[in-house]
């Protein structure tokens, strides 16, 4: 696995956007990070829930010049296969999509979700940002 690229979970990007604990860790790796389209959608939904207009959400994403990766068939299969080992921890499709992308890219997944530290998934490495 490589430390060059990190995959951001929605919680990691939200920590950066809301300047929460762990934002500094995400900011330091933003230039070498990617985010899956599924997780970006989760972030957009959270920002919309906070009352941010769609145009402002798009402008925010553009400002960060994010490397956004599509959710492809290989990731879909990986995320589906991860359902069993992650079910007890309550991971969502978005969570598993992030982990699948990290596995596919042989990268580390950044998250604020502490339950991810309990996971034992082949080929997947997780870093808690707080």
Tell me what the structure shows.
With 130 residues, the chain is α/β, with parallel strands linked by helices. The chain has a single domain, classed as 3-Layer(aba) Sandwich (Rossmann fold). Helix content is 51%, strand content 13%. The chain is built from 7 helices and 5 strands; from the N terminus they run βααβααβαααββ. It has helices at residues 10-17, 23-29, 37-49, 54-64, 73-81, 83-87, 93-105; strands at 6-8, 33-36, 68-69, 108-111, 125-128. A 5-stranded parallel sheet has the order 3-2-1-4-5. α5 (73-81) crosses α7. The longest helix is centred in the first third of the chain and has 13 residues, at 37-49. The mean pLDDT is 95.
Q: How would you sum up the major sheet?
A: 5 strands, parallel
**Strand order in the sheet with the most strands:** 3-2-1-4-5
Count, helices: 7
Structural class: alpha/beta
- Taking pLDDT < 50 over at least 5 consecutive residues as the criterion, the unreliable ranges are none
* Count of folded domains: 1
N-to-C SSE string, H for helix and E for strand: EHHEHHEHHHEE
The Cα radius of gyration reads: 14 Å
The average pLDDT score comes to 95
- Name the CATH homologous superfamily: 5'-nuclease
CATH class: Alpha Beta
Helix content bin: 40-55%
CATH fold naming: Rossmann fold
Q: What distance separates the N and C termini?
A: 22 Å
DSSP, total strands: 5
Q: What share of residues are in beta strands? A: 5-15%
CATH architecture: 3-Layer(aba) Sandwich
Seen as an oligomer or otherwise, the chain set is: single chain
General form: globular
Task: Please give a quick description of this structure.
This protein has 130 residues and is of the alpha/beta class.
């Amino acid at each position: 696995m490589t430390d060059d690229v990190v995959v951001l979970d929605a919680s990691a990007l939200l920590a950066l956007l809301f300047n929460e604990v762990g934002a500094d860790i995400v900011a330091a790796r933003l230039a070498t990070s990617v985010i899956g389209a599924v997780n970006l959608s989760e972030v957009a939904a959270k920002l919309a829930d906070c009352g941010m207009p769609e145009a402002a959400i798009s402008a925010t994403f553009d400002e960060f010049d994010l490397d956004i990766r599509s959710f492809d068939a290989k990731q879909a299969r990986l995320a589906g296969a991860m359902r069993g080992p992650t079910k007890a921890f309550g991971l969502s499709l978005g969570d598993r999509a992030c982990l699948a992308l990290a596995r596919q890219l042989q990268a580390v997944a950044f998250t604020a979700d502490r339950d991810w530290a309990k996971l034992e998934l082949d080929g997947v490495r997780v870093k808690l940002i707080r």
